[in-house]
């Protein structure tokens, strides 16, 4: 058997039962690697359940700084008998399988192409600890100790992190350290440590990681901080996975950072609404009245909010909506990631509507783009939807640190105050005086006799007077389209990277790839894999809708363009075809919609396959087994 | 129906303490049917705001969808208005009220807008005690879609086409009481003597003030057999008359002892209630409930101030919001700055 080898470059997957305390132990494992200065990306693959069902945690270690999923498993740590059969089968040939050897491994689970590492976790905990709850919880810490020996982790760093984690609960620190040490000793005494896959301090071969001192955080927390820094004062929401932690984090930071020092009162309001319809209604009301307000939701919530998104579009009320995408409807896959709300969001609501979308790919972008969303929604007087997803929102990502320019001023857009109204020659709420489709608005309570108007979704003339005239309607919606065109000049531009040099290219075709959000990281890795094989590929990361003109140019400059995304119907491809007048055969979909994030290997495989056969327009990936 | 609004005003129209005449509280000309009860409510709102001397631009008018929700166009032309989404005005009003706690908010809705599509938002608005006046123009039918029964249509009421309503109607005042509303009233669009002071008291109340106004639909629900026609309502109304005296005004009227009840609002304003056929203390929620049910059993419609909780705490207080309106907070009050962000980064390493 040829064992998998590698320093700082492998995938470890943990198979646990949810509700057994495994999450914090697994996080401890990943965070230690992060503190060792090695690029790492951990991912929860969890059920919609509180206790008792299988849950997985996948840790990608990548000295090259690839933070997307690679695909495959090099070391499986399995402490869940329910999923063991599947877990054994998922290990790559030459890989390793760590299990609780308190009970012997069933013979049908023996493979001869992988290495088994048995640690009697249950037995060790029964002997060492008396409290039943600790016997259960500390099994997880024992395997972290064993992994420290097996993978050459810095044990003192693990202990430091434990101390941080249990600050103020000193009693727990000693039992956790004890568990860590017995695991460590057992592995040292019974196995040859370290394994052929191992860690070495600070061995990162990733210039983009080495550039700055990274942080480890999830996108939802970053977006919440963006709302704090962007000056949001009203948050209205309804609980829904995977967006709930956006408002949880907003609440946590607001309690710390938004209390009026003089009175102890709150400079913010959070309302848990009765449903998503009410949540966005409150956001519309607050923004209409001049406060920066936002909501956070996910797929089904976006559907419920669509009616108000239409009103806000036509009535021209700013709205910030953080949409953390997940799979399909309500039951079954709410804890699985997808990018499948692209069309629902872009054209949300009745009538002719187009919504402004932002696509963050890192926690840093979740922060920056949330701040930007508030500025854009007030500048453009329209909803702005931040299109995050579960993978980005709920998993910890290595990210450049968040940065803040103290010179930042909120862009409140075209709002006339009392003085402005007095100075204006003629004011009408929907008069396009600047020709950019954006008109001047006023806030209630501003001026004793000027600037009052009636906000309504239905037809009105430029002076905001009720009208059912077709001409007024056409004039208004044409102006809204002009405004959407203006939005192109304000939204974030797409990102391109200099192409990777390929010495003897195997193809003369000019090949390009388009992707966005969490599809970006594995796409970059796939492009490098293919470059090594002699296939040069250009990249463009889409960051906003409406699309920038550079996107048209990029597509026209290439013979073949792959659109890499995580949904069944190639929604971004459809949106591009629709908005940019691109012929369908120019764009080939690379898709994954299994609910687990797309992998670099799968992307490279599909591009390779398409280039070999050069036939199908749309190549769907088969759902991966978890 | 008139379609031209006369511009002539008497040069010596009386003014309120702010110097505004009642014409300064006018809106656009109504496009509702001639004789519609809703127009009387619009007039009552206009007069109430004038008499209470609230600057028109410091009022925000919000509504949902339907004949009732068109009303805000027809009063207070100097106020901002928002004709929102069917049944969802409560959420828009909640957000607006959070953004600026200093304005006076008047919500106008109908029985379809509140008792059917908007029922969920209505009860949650009560639950949060949003500081606003919420008026339902209740005619028991959907006017704008031509006369279908609404959820407040009474059992046995006969529709214009002859169909008898087989369902029990929802009584919004009872529902509001049950849900804990801090101010509950009922009135009749034909009784401006009662409606005006009720609206003034509602606007002075701190918290959610609900007024259910029976407002006959002259086109679709004003025939014999309808329980919400002008004639039926007049014949069965049991009205409790009242006076509203704002905090600033000296109390001039003398009431005979034993014939009135005096209710003091948080700002010092006073409501004098004339003795009605059922006499109870208005801060007693259970007694209010009982009085409504007793009147109903006697085939009467009890109108007036049904309940007022003098200890009401509105949403702004419940959320411990800053005194300064949230929409006036500036960057320095909202944005923690780069040093704080650096320390947050530090905690994520």
TrEMBL record, chain A:
Domain of life: Bacteria
This protein's UniProt keywords: Oxidoreductase
Residue span(s) of domain Pyruvate flavodoxin/ferredoxin oxidoreductase pyrimidine binding: 226-393
Residue ranges annotated for the Pyruvate/ketoisovalerate oxidoreductase catalytic domain, each copy included: 19-185
SUPFAM superfamilies from the UniProt entry: Pyruvate-ferredoxin oxidoreductase, PFOR, domain III, Thiamin diphosphate-binding fold (THDP-binding), TK C-terminal domain-like
Signal peptide: none
Protein name per the record: 2-oxoacid:acceptor oxidoreductase subunit alpha
Alphabetized InterPro entries for the sequence: 2-oxoacid/accept_OxRdtase_asu, Pyruvate:ferred/Flavod_OxRd, Pyrv/ketoisovalerate_OxRed_cat, Pyrv_Fd/Flavodoxin_OxRdtase_N, Pyrv_flavodox_OxRed_cen, THDP-binding, Transketo_C/PFOR_II
TrEMBL record, chain B:
InterPro entries (alphabetical): 2-oxoacid:Fd_oxidoreductase (IPR051457), THDP-binding (IPR029061), TPP_enzyme_TPP-bd (IPR011766)
Residue ranges of domain Thiamine pyrophosphate enzyme TPP-binding in the record: 65-213
Entry keyword set: Oxidoreductase
Pfam families, per the entry: TPP_enzyme_C
Entry-linked CDD domains: TPP_OGFOR
Name of the molecule in the record: 2-oxoacid:ferredoxin oxidoreductase subunit beta
UniProt source species: Aliiroseovarius salicola
């Amino acid at each position: 058997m040829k064992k998998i080898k590698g320093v700082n470059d492998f995938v470890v997957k943990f198979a646990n039962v949810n509700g057994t305390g495994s999450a914090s132990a697994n996080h401890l494992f990943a965070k230690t690697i992060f503190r060792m200065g090695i690029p790492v990306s951990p991912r929860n693959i969890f059920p919609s359940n509180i206790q008792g069902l299988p849950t997985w945690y996948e840790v990608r270690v990548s000295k090259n700084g690839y933070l997307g999923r690679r695909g495959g498993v090099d070391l499986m740590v399995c402490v869940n008998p329910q999923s063991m059969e599947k877990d054994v089968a998922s290990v790559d040939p030459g890989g390793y399988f760590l299990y609780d050897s308190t009970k012997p491994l069933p013979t049908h689970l023996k493979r001869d192409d992988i290495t088994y590492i048995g640690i009697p976790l249950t037995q060790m905990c029964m002997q060492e600890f008396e409290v039943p709850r600790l016997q259960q919880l500390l099994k997880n810490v024992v395997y972290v100790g064993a992994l420290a020996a097996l993978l050459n982790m810095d044990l003192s760093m693990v202990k430091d992190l434990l101390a941080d984690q249990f600050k103020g609960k000193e009693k727990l620190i000693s039992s956790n350290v004890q568990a860590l040490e017995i695991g460590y000793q057992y592995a040292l005494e019974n196995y040859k440590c370290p394994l052929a896959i191992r860690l070495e301090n600070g061995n990162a071969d990733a210039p983009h990681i080495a550039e700055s001192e990274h942080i480890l955080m999830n996108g939802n927390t970053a977006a919440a901080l963006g709302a704090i820094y962007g000056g949001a004062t009203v948050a209205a929401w309804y609980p829904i996975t995977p967006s709930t932690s956006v408002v949880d984090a907003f609440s946590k930071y607001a309690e710390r950072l938004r209390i009026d020092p003089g009175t102890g009162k709150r400079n913010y309001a959070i309302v848990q609404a009765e449903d998503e319809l009410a949540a966005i209604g409150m956001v519309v009301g607050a923004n209409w009245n001049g406060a920066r307000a936002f909501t956070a939701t996910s797929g089904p919530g976006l559907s419920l909010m669509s009616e108000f998104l239409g009103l806000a579009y036509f009535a021209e009320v700013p709205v910030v909506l953080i949409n953390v995408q997940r799979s399909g409807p309500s039951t079954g896959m709410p804890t699985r990631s997808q990018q499948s709300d692209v069309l629902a969001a872009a054209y949300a609501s009745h009538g002719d509507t187009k919504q402004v979308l932002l696509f963050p790919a890192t926690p840093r972008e979740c922060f920056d783009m949330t701040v930007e969303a508030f500025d854009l929604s007030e500048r453009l007087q329209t909803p702005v939807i931040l299109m995050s997803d579960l993978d980005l929102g709920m998993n910890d990502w290595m990210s450049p640190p968040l940065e803040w320019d103290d010179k930042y001023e909120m862009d409140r857009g075209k709002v006339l105050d009392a003085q402005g109204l007095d100075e204006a020659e003629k004011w009408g709420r929907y008069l396009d005086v600047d020709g950019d489709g954006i008109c001047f608005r006023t806030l209630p309570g501003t001026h004793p006799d000027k600037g009052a108007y009636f906000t309504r979704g239905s037809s009105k003339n430029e002076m905001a007077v009720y009208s059912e005239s077709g001409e007024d309607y056409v004039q208004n919606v044409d102006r809204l389209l002009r405004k959407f065109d203006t939005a192109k000049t304000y939204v974030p531009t797409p990102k391109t990277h200099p192409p990777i040099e390929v010495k003897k290219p195997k193809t003369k075709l000019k090949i390009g790839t388009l992707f966005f959000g969490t599809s970006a990281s594995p796409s970059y890795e796939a492009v490098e894999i293919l470059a090594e094989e002699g296939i040069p590929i250009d990249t463009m990361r889409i960051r906003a809708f409406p699309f920038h003109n550079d996107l048209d140019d990029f597509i026209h400059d290439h013979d073949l363009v792959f659109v890499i995304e995580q949904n069944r119907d190639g929604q971004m491809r459809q949106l591009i075809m629709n908005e940019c007048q691109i012929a369908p055969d120019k764009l080939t979909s690379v898709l994954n919609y299994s609910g687990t994030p797309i992998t670099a290997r799968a992307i490279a495989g599909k591009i390779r396959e398409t280039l070999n056969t050069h036939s199908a327009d749309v190549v769907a990936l088969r759902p991966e087994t978890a | 129906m008139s379609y031209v609004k006369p511009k002539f005003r008497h040069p010596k129209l009386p003014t309120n303490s702010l110097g505004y005449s009642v014409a300064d509280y006018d809106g656009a000309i109504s496009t509702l049917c001639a004789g519609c009860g809703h127009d009387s409510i619009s007039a009552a709102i206009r007069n109430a705001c004038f008499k209470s001397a609230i600057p028109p631009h410091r009022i925000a008018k919000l509504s949902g969808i339907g004949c009732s929700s068109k009303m805000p166009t027809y009063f207070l032309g100097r106020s901002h208005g928002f004709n929102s989404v069917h049944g969802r005005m409560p959420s828009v009003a909640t957000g607006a009220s959070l953004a600026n706690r200093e304005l006076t908010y008047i919500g106008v809705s109908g029985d379809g807008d509140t008792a059917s599509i908007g029922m969920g938002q209505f009860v949650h608005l009560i639950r949060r005690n949003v500081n606003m006046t919420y008026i339902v123009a209740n005619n028991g039918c959907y006017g704008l879609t031509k006369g279908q029964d609404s959820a407040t249509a009474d059992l046995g009421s006969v529709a214009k086409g002859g169909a008898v309503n087989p369902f029990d109607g929802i009584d919004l005042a009872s529902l509001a009481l049950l849900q804990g509303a801090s101010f509950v009233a009922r009135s009749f669009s034909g009784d401006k003597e009662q409606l005006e002071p009720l609206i003034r008291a509602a606007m002075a109340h701190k918290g959610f003030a609900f007024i259910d106004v029976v407002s006959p639909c002259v086109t679709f629900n004003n025939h014999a057999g309808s329980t919400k026609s002008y004639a039926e309502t007049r014949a069965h109304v049991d009205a409790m008359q009242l006076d509203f005296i704002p905090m600033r005004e000296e109390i001039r009227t003398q009431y005979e002892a034993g014939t009135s009840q005096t209710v003091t609002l948080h700002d010092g304003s006073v409501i004098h209630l004339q003795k009605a056929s059922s006499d109870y203390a208005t801060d007693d929620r259970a007694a209010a409930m009982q009085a409504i049910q007793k009147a109903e059993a006697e085939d009467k419609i009890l109108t007036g101030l049904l309940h007022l909780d003098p200890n009401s705490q509105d949403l702004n207080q419940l959320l411990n919001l800053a005194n300064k309106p949230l929409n006036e907070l500036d960057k320095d009050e909202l944005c923690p700055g780069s040093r704080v962000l650096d320390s947050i980064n530090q905690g994520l390493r």
